[in-house]
Amino acid sequence: MSDPKAELEAFIQTTEFSCLGARAALKKGSIVHGHYAVLGDPESARAHYRDMLGYARDIRPTLSDKSFRTFVSTFEEPGGILGEEEYERLLWRHLQLIHDIDSRTYGLDEGATSDPDEPNFGFHVAGHSFFVVGMHPGSSRASRRFSRPAIAFNSLMQFMLLGDKFFSMQDAIRKRETTNNGSVNPSFTTYEYQMPSRHFSGRMTEEDWKCPFTSRHEPSSVKYTSDVMQRPTG
How far is CA 148 from the centre of its chain? Predict the structure, then answer.
């Protein structure tokens, strides 16, 4: 039986993988990995949530502008190559299952909303907002074409703490994407300052795309005023 964690670490070190933050986290041993049975399955989502809950509770005091941490979940099923739309459907089903549990107890992070149509959207666990990066074997982007379904959860606070360093990292990532994958992900160049939810699955969404996620939180009173929630790039 293959080792999902070893597969993940090998993938992060490939030429095609573009995220320099994840490479830094791997080097520092700050990637937290969880492996679950089935993407989009209620039992797997409950197990995944338990692990994410502990991670979200612990991450805030450990963040700094010199650190990069991420939680990466991998899944045994579905196996084989999924189409991008099917992966997107399962990804959002899985996130909805987690959110439905979490929102019974926890609310919103400061400055964020869980409304997927808003530009300051973040996926919330334990009151901490995350930017999600979906990966799977059928991705059209080589930087997201992992050997099995996977989801990376990157703290939005982590991006904010980087300050101007973020833009240097963004430039480096996009140059790497262009060199190794032929172009920057068109989802970011087309919809960069609109809905972060468009970027979660990795596919290029249609102009009239509607995010298949329903927030259980009360609407946020915070209005979008800067690019701080738009920083993820890959």
Answer: 15
Element (H, E) at 92: helix 84-102
- Assigned token pair, 231: 């920083």
The predicted pLDDT at position 65 comes to 54
Q: Is 113 helix (H, G, I), strand (E, B) or coil?
A: strand
Strand partners, 73: 34, 151
Task: Tell which residue, 64, 90, 73, has the closest CA to residue 36.
Answer: 73
- Across 43-52, 111-120, 191-200, least confident range: 191-200
What digits encode the pLDDT tens for the residues 38-82? Answer: 999 999 999 999 999 999 988 876 666 556 889 999 999 999 899
Using one digit for the tens of pLDDT, what is the confidence trace for 133-177?
999 999 999 999 999 999 999 998 887 777 777 777 777 788 877
Q: In the chain, helix, strand, coil percent, each to 5?
A: 40, 15, 45
Render the burial of 59-95: b for 16+ CB within 10 Å, e for the rest: beeebeeebbbbbbbbbbebeeebebeebbebbbbbb
Secondary structure (DSSP) of 44-91: HHHHHHHHHHHHHHHHGGG--TT---EEEEEEEES-SPPPHHHHHHHH
Which amino acid makes up residue 76? E
What span, in angstroms and rounded, lies between the C-alpha atoms of 201 and 148?
A: 14
Q: Model's pTM, two decimal places?
A: 0.89
